Amino acid sequence: MQDFKAFRIHKTDSGIEARFEQLNIDDLSDGEVVIQVAYSGINYKDALAATGKGAILRQYPLVGGIDLSGRVVSSTDPEFTPGQAVVVCGANLSETVDGGYTEYARVSREAVVPLPESISLRDAMGIGTAGFTAAIAIDRMEQNGQTPEHGPIVVTGATGGVGSIAIDMLSQRGYTVVALSGKSSQSDYLTALGASEVRLRQEQDWGSRPLERAKWGGAIDNVGGDTLTWLTRTTLPWGNIAAIGLAGSVELNTTVMPFILRGVSLLGINSVLLSAERRRAIWQRIATDLKPAHLDRIVTRETAFADLPQAFDDYIDGAVTGRTLVNIHPE
User: Fold this and answer.
1) Alpha helices in 144-204 (DSSP H)
2) pLDDT, tens digit, 9 for 90 and up, residues 9-39
3) 121-143 helix and 161-172 helix, angle to the nearest 10 degrees
4) pTM surpassing 0.70?
5) 62 in Cβ contact with 105 (< 8 Å)
6) Domain 4-115+296-327 sits in which CATH superfamily?
7) Could you tell me which CATH number the domain at 129-268 has?
8) CA 206/CA 118 separation, integer angstroms
9) What is the pLDDT of residue 275?
């Protein structure tokens, strides 16, 4: 195979340096499956890694990008055949192994998921790790007894990738969804995705008592900190809170009272530590009962591969709504 272009992140004496390089397939991390990458996406973690604003990579250098979709070029595992459409999300891409910002990727077979026929390669990265994570959250909540009849679900950090797709998925499942956001200008966007109510974070009374009036059937939280603390105080008995992000804070200042007096469950959501079987099961749900209906609205930006370095700062500044698609070998 001839050399190809990849966006690689280095750690130098002066800090983090990310740049395009020409690589050979043997420069990449070991793996059984070689993929021609069609699309990747931009997640907050990607922006932190590429700009050096967060310690995401655990070794250097690595190709950036925590997800990809594309077609198999070759595989030592007979399950995967040339031309097959596949998707890879999480699985330590751009943390301990090379990621998706490359024309060709080499990936462990356990991380590769055959793409369901009802999802295109483009839509797979419109969904991306953000949608995959939202689907894991909903799946875990429902395994723990969550139903639409139990009450409204609050989605915090609602205009981000996870939040946007979670609102879409939940509303398709028949849940009443309340979006909590700091962006007053995005109310129409959130309503169009399926939110029945939009609340502004700046106007929210967080309360201070260990238990406040319970009003939420459950929640998907992308923020942490005071927001997550408030959710523990205000979730109805036997409700589930899926904790996904820490955009606000890593701190959680609560008591055991919501858990032992109301039976509230706090569910940690991780898109990396999943078996191959669970990954495939989640993508099957994304292809069926959790399939987003508004990806055309949620994918708000597209960038050519060559323009990728200029796309990260808006994520650091919190200026992005929805998902950004990175076109590498678009179909």
Assistant:
1) 161-172, 187-193
2) 999 988 899 999 999 999 999 999 999 999 9
3) 70
4) yes
5) no
6) Medium-chain alcohol dehydrogenases, catalytic domain (3.90.180.10)
7) 3.40.50.720
8) 42
9) 93
